[in-house]
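ESCALATION

Customer reports they have been waiting on this structure for their group meeting. Please prioritize. Original submission:
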Amino acid sequence: MFQGRGDETDELNEHFGFNPEEVNYLILSHAHIDHCGLIPRLVADGFKGTIFSTAATMDLARILLNDSAGIQKNDTDYINKKEVRTGRVPMVPLYTEEDVMEAMRLFKIVEYNEDYEIDSRIKFCFTDAGHILGSAAINITILEDAKFTQITFSGDLGRYNDMLLKSPQSFPQADYIIMESTYGDSYHKDLEPIEGQLQEIITQTCLVKKGKLIIPAFSVGRTQELLYALNALELNGTLPDVPFYVDSPLSLKATEVLKGHTQVYNNKVQDVLKRDEDIFQFTGLKFIDSVEESKRLNDDPRPCVIISSSGMAEAGRVKHHIRNNIQNNKNTILLVGYCEPNSLGGQLMSGKKIVQIFGDDYDVRAEVKVIRSMSAHGDCADLLQFLSCQDPKEVKQIYLVHGENKVQENFRDKLLEVGFASIKIPAQHQVENLELKEVIQD
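Update from on-call: job pushed to the front of the queue and completed.
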């Protein structure tokens, strides 16, 4: 699902550029909405094949897609109230909760490091990508006319010093690699100061200015990292005494899913669990469920911290919170991850003084802060480390995807420096013919 692409967003999401009926299989790397968000639309448009994923990815996808369907309905209803008054044609959601139910029936679970044979010509295995719960790189072997090829799709890659999760796994030698490149030309700061930065921003906004701190955060991954960091402040006795709200029913569900998969935590988190059985709960924290409770937060003038989805502030309850608080200089909007440049979060991050929210212009009087190191995406060093298990001479081609063009060009130069011979930056819907190797007979 495309987000934050301005006027072209709807067009990109409504038209795949291929016929879904002609697709046989779908292998899903992870449950973030930019990767799974159009699956119900794909099914509604004719896809009838199997969808392969890890168990955790399926669990997360179910709640994320149902939430996405609900957000679309609520947002289109809200916009249509205005559109009907102006005589324009009402908007229609991309899909409904019924479409989500139909899509979920097609899922099949495959566990990490399991060699799964789709048919006599295709097999694959998932290796842990360390990005979010259940995330995987996809390693495919394809046999055709007594020849075969090895293709790896990185999915989105996590960090080798992630706050919560284990590091990405090494993966089998590939002939072709499709590689994410979100932070391909930059380096994150160390994660250790995150707690201190949060403490400082909360203190300044809520205790000094007596304002509200609004934090757009993805329900899966980022919200849990924030809760873990805030819990660490309480364990250290330095958590500011203010109310904390997670205004996202989806975040509560995702947090419960993560609690049920403690095997994914890294050693540092495992040590914390020995002295704190709930690493996502602390004094003053409340999860908001109902719409009525969410609306009351906007009417309550008292200082507080509100964590709400989505992370790019393009949809969901956080967009309403920003609209209601952006014109008050007591308040702060804290951005804690990557935002598409044209998204509301991206515009705020770039310093725009006037932004459009639900069709209306708003002056940006609230303070805008950014913590760039809170990213679930690996940086340039992490991406290169992920590839370090490969013999560059054996890799025929690397395709760079999931990144801005200038970043991809810079990362291509890095890859050439470390010995990879051919790197392409494909255009959308570009078709590539892959050369297969002869099968070695025993």
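Sent to customer with the following note: The chain has two domains: 6-186+376-438, 194-370.
Escalation resolved.
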